[in-house]
Amino acid sequence: MQALIWDVDGTLAETERDGHRLAFNEAFQALGLPWRWDERRYGELLAVTGGRERLLHDMATRPDAPADPDARRALAARLHALKNERYAAIVAAGGIPLRPGVAELLDEARRAGLPMAIATTTSRSNVEALLGAHLGPGWAAGFAAVVCAEDAPRKKPDPQAYLQALAGLGCAPAEALALEDAWPGIRAAVAAGVPVAVTRSVYFADGPVDGALAVGPGLGAGAGWRGPGRPPGAGRIGLAQLRRWHAARPRP
Length: 252
Fold this sequence. Notes:
Layout: E1 3-6, H1 16-30, H2 39-45, H3 51-59, H4 69-92, H5 102-112, E2 116-119, H6 124-135, E3 145-147, H7 160-169, E4 176-180, H8 183-192, E5 196-199, E6 214-216, H9 239-247
Parallel strand pairs: 1-2, 1-4, 2-3, 4-5, 5-6
Helix pairs in contact: 1-4, 3-4, 4-6
């Protein structure tokens, strides 16, 4: 294993339910719109990757949304920008902690000199808000590539973000390991030829994981994980365990 590629939303932190969803609702309120996404509705909308795409999908179901496609796209862009501002404020206020085991694995990989990259469909401002809050202003120096929605407009499950991350790492797909939480990211990694370990998140606790190398409830503990070879111990999932799974990956 020569590199780690991280997803962001749901993998580094549980950002969706109490971060992005709340920020979208605040954006609706700021523009005087009566729309609100409860937890169930937002979970349904996560089948659509990308915040702006999610807005447009939802508007198509609303009789009070603009009928003109250009007006609808303009409203989606304005709402999305407002949402990102609100999300950054939620993160800055300490509302979105990293998931258990994430900070430890990031630190362990840095100390081991293992190259890392980010491959996400979220906006760069959201990544900067989250990682700046938790890793400090120099967070980007710890990653060989940071691929966000602005860099890879073809959203997961398209592999574009992963292919760009691999190019930045200078790494063959099979020599990297992806960390994901949900089926769009799993499919994107698999399509790029990257083995993937899945840390299930709140909204994707029971989602499909076809093609995943290992699957578990989170990096903070070994209980509940399944992958090739013997089960991990009770402690957190660290580099040694990821390397064991990676070494046992299916070969062509």
